[in-house]
Amino acid sequence: MLNNPLFAAYKPRLTKISQLIWSALLPKRDQLIAQIHRIDYRNEEIKYVKTIIERDARAEYGGIIERLRYAEGVKLAILNHEIGELQKDIERISEIINNFNELASGQVVDPANFMARFQIINENLEYMIAKPFKVTIDVVPHDLPRELTEIRHHLQRYRASQALLDFKDEVIYRLSKNAKLSTREAIEELEKTSSAEMAEWAKLTDKFAAQLKKYQLICFYCGSVLDDGTVNAKCKVNNVQAVPDDFKGYTQEVPAKSYHGNVRHYFAKPREELFRTYYDPEAKDKIAFKTPFHITIELILSKLRKFISDNRVDLHKVFLDHDKNKLGTVNSIIFSFIAFEILRLDQGEITQLSRFLDPAGTNSINYIELEKLIADPKYFESIPIREFGANE
User: Fold this and answer.
1) pTM for this predicted structure
2) Are 299 and 206 in contact (CB under 8 A)?
């Protein structure tokens, strides 16, 4: 049987199909299953956002609900269609594997039957391996129709306009009551006050912008930040030709070996873990400074304080309405919804704030902690270093 030409042709083809299944086809099926899980998670996000909007709209406007359901149906139909296509591919892969197992794993090996079906199996196998599938999920929940939100925006603009009218009425009343003040003097006083306040805001913005820009790049060898004092200075650490094996450096980018020992700084972006690190000021040979991550968080908190104060938002009540168990925590989906819809943060700010409030990635955000950070700016400085992963 070993000299049989049919068996000699059968053996390498059997090996080829087996290797292709284990090395390419099965991983492809795992990728398709993982994509279905990601789409299912996106389905849950869309359903949750839709539920919140529907509950709010049903109380006042019935017609909004029908338009919202239509938009949701379109999105879910697209996602379900993608899941169906992926599921069909998974079933085709399973069918190929089952056909191969029936031919190769039977009690009686039939090389003639295998050779007769080899071409079809090989073509189906190569087709499924080469067939692409869309990894990105284009359907998102954030563009669902929010007619009630638009109405609220109109009401807010109306209140702002009404407040402006009241202010003008007060100015007119005082001008008419006090004849000694001329109209020009009143306008100059108003412009002076406004200009002073705008100057203070501009100064504060420049301060934070300069501080952020200062810490954008650090040295790979010594961790010094790039500024006018270090850009042309010598690096006290980069004085040997060989870097120790256990030295990871401070930056994401690693300089070439020829750069070692030239007594110069090598500036690049800090490593990801350093963005969440406070250097301990009590430790020797270390400088205490705030990383760009913490400066960003302070800016976001400052923005929230102003927004909450200007719009008189009851933050505790907002979170409490979404906290079903009243435990002082919400999951990341609910937190993202509140931050986007009510607190008017963008997606980048939401991601940074979530990472700060949930550094361990537990999908549980303590909104009591956020309320303390907003109520007391000094509370931010009192949070222990260990919570920012300094000892990791």
Assistant:
1) 0.37
2) no
